[in-house]
From TrEMBL:
<keyword id="KW-0963">Cytoplasm</keyword>
<feature type="domain" description="Methyltransferase">
    <location>
        <begin position="63"/>
        <end position="195"/>
    </location>
</feature>
<dbReference type="GO" id="GO:0032259">
    <property type="term" value="P:methylation"/>
</dbReference>
<keyword id="KW-0489">Methyltransferase</keyword>
<comment type="function">
    <text>S-adenosyl-L-methionine-dependent protein-lysine N-methyltransferase that methylates elongation factor 1-alpha.</text>
</comment>
<protein>
    <recommendedName>
        <fullName>Protein-lysine N-methyltransferase NTJ_14869</fullName>
        <ecNumber>2.1.1.-</ecNumber>
    </recommendedName>
</protein>
<dbReference type="InterPro" id="IPR029063">
    <property type="entry name" value="SAM-dependent_MTases_sf"/>
</dbReference>
<dbReference type="GO" id="GO:0008168">
    <property type="term" value="F:methyltransferase activity"/>
</dbReference>
<dbReference type="InterPro" id="IPR025714">
    <property type="entry name" value="Methyltranfer_dom"/>
</dbReference>
<comment type="similarity">
    <text>Belongs to the class I-like SAM-binding methyltransferase superfamily. EFM4 family.</text>
</comment>
<dbReference type="Pfam" id="PF13847">
    <property type="entry name" value="Methyltransf_31"/>
</dbReference>
<keyword id="KW-0808">Transferase</keyword>
<keyword id="KW-0949">S-adenosyl-L-methionine</keyword>
<dbReference type="InterPro" id="IPR026635">
    <property type="entry name" value="Efm4/METTL10"/>
</dbReference>
């Protein structure tokens, strides 16, 4: 990864304490009112990923991991589309607890869930290997880490590559990084395979995208 890459301005959104508090609140709201909480980037973002998977005839038995699964709604939608080998990972135990409750309410008992820090030096061997990894805002949050975000980003790229099979797909959606920046930052282990179209805007005669959604393929090691 390019060590000269400019980091983003640090934010509380890059701290585990922030997300622990969010998911503790969401757990209570779900228990009391059945409110699943926020869907990161909204349902449209989930549908764009699901549409890409189904249009490209991705077999429903592919091993898929949702990195930073939060409340697990992406896993719920994948299961509804018939995908059977699903795993959710989050570093917040409260997020995993919330996810378990929501999946149970949907009678989706076969989804595997694990607490793991994707920026750690080593990640649990129990995670195993996957064919597809999904990231919808997790890399964004990591990039906002107040303490040495670059080291955390580098570890994340390394760990995502480690849990994917050669030729496996990594589908990332980001509002903090452009497609070109993502391609550069993940170039040590991935190549761009496809760009999923996202909403665009026009300003000052130039066109840009609100979010970037890129499909990467893991390079052979």
């Amino acid at each position: 990864m390019d060590t000269d890459q400019t980091d983003l301005e640090p934010s509380e959104l890059g701290t585990k304490e922030y997300w622990d508090s969010i998911y503790e609140r969401d757990k209570t709201n779900y228990q009391d009112h059945g409110d699943v909480g926020e869907i990161w980037f909204g349902e449209d973002s989930e549908m764009r990923i699901l549409t890409w998977l189904t249009r490209n005839d991705v077999p429903t038995d592919r091993r898929i991991v949702d990195l930073g699964c939060g409340n697990g709604m992406m896993l719920v939608e994948l299961a509804r589309e018939g995908f059977t080998e699903l795993t959710g990972v989050d570093y917040c135990e409260s997020a995993i607890d919330l996810c378990k409750s929501i999946l149970s309410s949907q009678s989706m008992h076969d989804v595997k869930l694990e607490v793991a820090d994707l920026t750690a030096k080593n990640i649990p061997n129990s995670l195993g290997k996957f064919d597809i990894a999904l990231d919808k805002g997790t890399y964004d949050a990591i990039s906002l880490t107040p303490e040495d975000a670059q080291t955390s980003r580098t570890a994340y790229v390394r760990n995502v590559a480690a849990i994917l099979e050669n030729g496996g797909l990594f589908i990332i959606t980001s509002c903090n990084w452009t497609e070109a920046e993502l391609v550069k930052q993940f170039s040590s282990a991935f190549r761009r395979k496809h760009t999923i179209p996202t909403p665009s805007f026009n300003f000052g005669g130039k066109t840009g995208n609100v979010v970037s959604s890129v499909v990467f393929e893991k390079l052979s090691t």
